[in-house]
Amino acid sequence: MTEQQPKPQPQACTGCSGAGGRTIDTSSGGITRQHWVRCQACGGTGKQGGI
Protein backbone atom coordinates (compact mmCIF):
# COMPACT_ATOMS: atom_id res chain seq x y z
CA MET A 1 0.00 0.00 0.00
CA THR A 2 1.35 3.43 -0.88
CA GLU A 3 1.58 6.18 1.66
CA GLN A 4 -0.28 9.36 0.73
CA GLN A 5 1.76 12.54 0.80
CA PRO A 6 0.11 15.59 2.40
CA LYS A 7 -0.97 18.17 -0.14
CA PRO A 8 1.16 21.32 -0.14
CA GLN A 9 -0.62 24.19 1.54
CA PRO A 10 -0.71 27.62 -0.06
CA GLN A 11 1.69 30.12 1.45
CA ALA A 12 1.54 33.90 1.64
CA CYS A 13 2.79 35.41 -1.61
CA THR A 14 6.37 36.59 -1.38
CA GLY A 15 5.78 39.33 -3.95
CA CYS A 16 3.07 41.15 -1.97
CA SER A 17 3.46 39.62 1.52
CA GLY A 18 -0.04 38.16 1.27
CA ALA A 19 -1.77 41.49 0.56
CA GLY A 20 -2.76 40.59 -3.01
CA GLY A 21 -1.38 43.82 -4.43
CA ARG A 22 -0.34 47.31 -3.53
CA THR A 23 -1.49 50.90 -3.87
CA ILE A 24 0.29 53.33 -6.12
CA ASP A 25 -0.03 57.10 -6.02
CA THR A 26 -0.51 59.03 -9.23
CA SER A 27 -0.46 62.79 -9.18
CA SER A 28 -1.33 65.30 -11.87
CA GLY A 29 -2.59 68.85 -11.75
CA GLY A 30 -2.23 69.00 -7.97
CA ILE A 31 -4.59 66.03 -7.47
CA THR A 32 -3.30 62.85 -5.84
CA ARG A 33 -5.04 59.59 -6.64
CA GLN A 34 -4.43 56.11 -5.26
CA HIS A 35 -4.89 53.04 -7.42
CA TRP A 36 -4.86 49.39 -6.38
CA VAL A 37 -2.59 47.22 -8.50
CA ARG A 38 -2.96 43.44 -8.25
CA CYS A 39 0.17 41.42 -7.59
CA GLN A 40 1.35 39.69 -10.77
CA ALA A 41 3.01 36.79 -8.91
CA CYS A 42 -0.20 35.58 -7.24
CA GLY A 43 -2.84 37.16 -9.47
CA GLY A 44 -4.29 39.15 -6.57
CA THR A 45 -5.03 36.21 -4.30
CA GLY A 46 -2.22 36.85 -1.82
CA LYS A 47 -1.31 33.14 -1.82
CA GLN A 48 1.13 31.00 -3.75
CA GLY A 49 1.59 27.26 -4.03
CA GLY A 50 -0.67 24.53 -2.85
CA ILE A 51 -3.30 22.79 -4.90
Automatic annotation (TrEMBL):
Lineage, broadest ranks: Bacteria, Bacillati, Actinomycetota, Actinomycetes, Kitasatosporales
Entry protein name: Uncharacterized protein
SUPFAM superfamilies: DnaJ/Hsp40 cysteine-rich domain
Residue span of region Disordered: 1-30
Polar residues composition-biased segments: 1-14
Top-level taxon of the source organism: Bacteria
